[in-house]
Amino acid sequence: MTRRIPHLLVFSLIAGLYLAGTTDFLESKLTDLRFHTFRSDATADLVIIDIDTASLHELDVWPWPRSHHATVLGRVLDAGAGIVAYDVDFSSKSTDEADAALEAQIARGGKRVVLPIFMQFDPKSSFGEEPRLSLTQPLRRFSRHSRLAFVNMRPEPDGLVRRMASREDWNDAKFPTLAGILAEYSGAKPKTTGLYGIDFGIRSETIPRFSFADVFHGQVSPEKFKGKLVIVGASAAELGDRIAVPVYRALPGPLVQALAYESIAQSRDLTRLSTFPILFVAFILAVWAGPFLSQTRWRRGSGALCGVWIGALAIAFAAHDVWAIAVDVVPWLSVVTISFVYGLIRNADIQAINLLTARLAVVRTRTVLRHIIAGSSDGLIVVGARGTIEMYNPAAESIFSRTAAEVVGQPLSVLFPSSGGGENEGQRISNAIENGEGLGSVGPLREITAWRPDGMAFPLEILVNQTELRLDSGRAADNPDEDGAYILTVRDISQRKRLEAQAKQELERRIAERTAELEAAQERLLRSERLATLGQLTATVSHELRNPLGTIRSSIYVIRRAASEALSGSVGKAVERIERNITRCDNIIDELLDFTRIREPLMQPATLDNWISDVIEELDVPNGIEITRDLACAGEVTSFDHDTLRRSVINVYENACHAIEQAREQNPDAERKISIETRVGNGRVEIGISDTGAGIPDDVMPSIFEPLYSTKGFGVGLGLVVVKRIMDQHNGGVEISTEAGKGTRVLLWLPRPVDEIRVSA
């Protein structure tokens, strides 16, 4: 019994370490070995729509408008996808239009659409108190139409994500995880409701992935999504959603979710054998094999130890492959190994054992550091003191478009080639490190221009730090006194630079728009002031002139009544000239009053052809002028202000009469005709007035709508100005076409009602 006491103590120690989780690191390494040994392909049930670097470059802005997600979701739903799960945060608002578009597609998909929720530390927690967890959910307008699923991942103590849950608890509610909800939809059932191990032996490259941009542009066949489970998420390194995992070093978050689902779907969700049988076998080995291994000769003991190791590993490998059960064999291996070492320790060099332990600790530390570096979203480059690249993570591979195999062991200058214009900033940094000049000539964080192998330049943010750690990568150090290594942290800031340029352009555009608005407002203010001044002047002139003009007209009337027979010859003509000029003065006053009088139009419906016919009948037609009409709007009912539109028609008509008289003075035989027509089409009704007058000269056309501009020997130049303002008030317009010596056509048009009203003429 006494000889078994040391081995029982060994068992107690190993059991304590096992129960405390200290041996989990070694178990994880053995599990990783099994993943590498037993590989399998993914099912054909699931596809990933990948927000990759190519999509970011092609769609050229980030964050994308929600309308992009709406377009892709619509295409996938139209293709007949079974379920669409998002690993994209929709917890904040975008524009109303874009959010509405995405909400419409989510509502259309209903419970076939899954949106992410996740737990995170509440940033509002007070300083010094224990951080609180908060739940981040999609906007209510999205979540009310869809299902919700947790996307949280829990890294193990070695920094890798190995396990996933099918359900998560929040307060008193239970929510499925993304993998759990996909499994539920496909009919697969997890072996446990708690945490299960993800089978990283499933080849991630066999999961179909389609670029978001290709789906957005409709370049992916709908058959690729029919009946499939679809995950939409990001793999672009610059978005930072990369998870450190076994086997692959680092994977995008959506791909880890996909492997978690595939593990359930293939019944490969790993369950861990319970503690009792593990410790029971360890106890049997301690009390039976321990004394044998510690007392036998070392060669025989080594053989027995190897046999136990092979048997234990065979059991673990078989359980993993056949039943997807993770058997913890470290306690078994530890018990027999320590028992064997116990037999050797009496004759072994204690210092050698300590060195071995230290070496194992260093290996573990390096392994953890390598996992951290591999999972970093920033590019990390470790350079030895002599300027040789010693370590180069996947993010750096993505940034420089060079693999680790190409650059590790090469001088740093291979990443910063010559740009053809002398020494650039990247070369200056690499030369300073390679020549041992230190950081004094390099400086802290800075932005430089770098070049990829294809010659494409891109902006790079680089931070250089020096460490006292010496790296030899297995090579002998020629100079033991050389300085430590350099750590370069690099980041591709192309997206940030594009956003800065877009923000600058947007600011300049808004400034230009605001300047134009201010100038237009100033112009309106000045015009209003001019109109107010002109209105006051017009009211005064009207009052001061109307009375004497009325007196003169009454006096002429009395003179005509009293001396009608005497008014002949030159005296009669003089009286007629007086009457004409009185009428002209009245017209000028009317024009001024019409121009300064601003009121909202009184819209009344009328049949256009009937109304224009009445206006034509009221016209004062001069001798020798022929009026023709071509009315083609029979039964077309339109709403307009009868008085102001009549004023517009009369003003244009009077201008036409004057133009014909001008043409007659130049050519007495010229045709004297005015045509009035109506038309309907293109969403509007039109009144056209054409004359055979002299036309409008080219140098006059730009000024015809300017107030107080006139080429006549009478009037104040407000006729067409009043016409344009009246048509603008009706949301219509004035169009003028003219040809010198042949005449002018003025088109007055009104918008046609959306609901056409047709009545019989």
Provide an overview of this structure.
The protein is of the alpha/beta class and 761 residues long. It folds into 5 domains: 2-21 and 273-346; 42-267, no CATH class; 378-490, PAS domain (Beta-Lactamase), CATH 3.30.450; 499-595, Helix Hairpins, CATH 1.10.287; 601-751, 2-Layer Sandwich (Heat Shock Protein 90), CATH 3.30.565. 46% of the residues lie in helices and 19% in strands. The chain contains 21 helices and 27 strands. The strands form 8 sheets. Strands 1, 2, 3, 4, 5, 10 and 11 form a 7-stranded mixed β-sheet that branches. A 5-stranded antiparallel β-sheet has the order 17-16-20-19-18, with helices on both faces. Helix 1 (5-19) runs antiparallel to helix 10 (275-295), helix 7 (178-186) runs parallel beside helix 9 and helix 10 (275-295) packs antiparallel against helix 11. It is elongated and about 165 Å long. The termini are far apart. Mean pLDDT is 84; it is low at 473-481 and 757-761.
Number of strands: 27
Domain module count: 5
Oligomeric status of the shown chains?
A: single chain
Mean pLDDT: 84
- Strand percent estimate: 15-25%
Largest sheet: 7 strands, mixed
| Helix content bin | 40-55%
The unreliable regions are 473-481, 757-761
Distance between the termini: 124 Å
Shape: elongated
Number of helices: 21
**What structural category do the secondary elements indicate?**
alpha/beta
Rg, Å, rounded: 46 Å
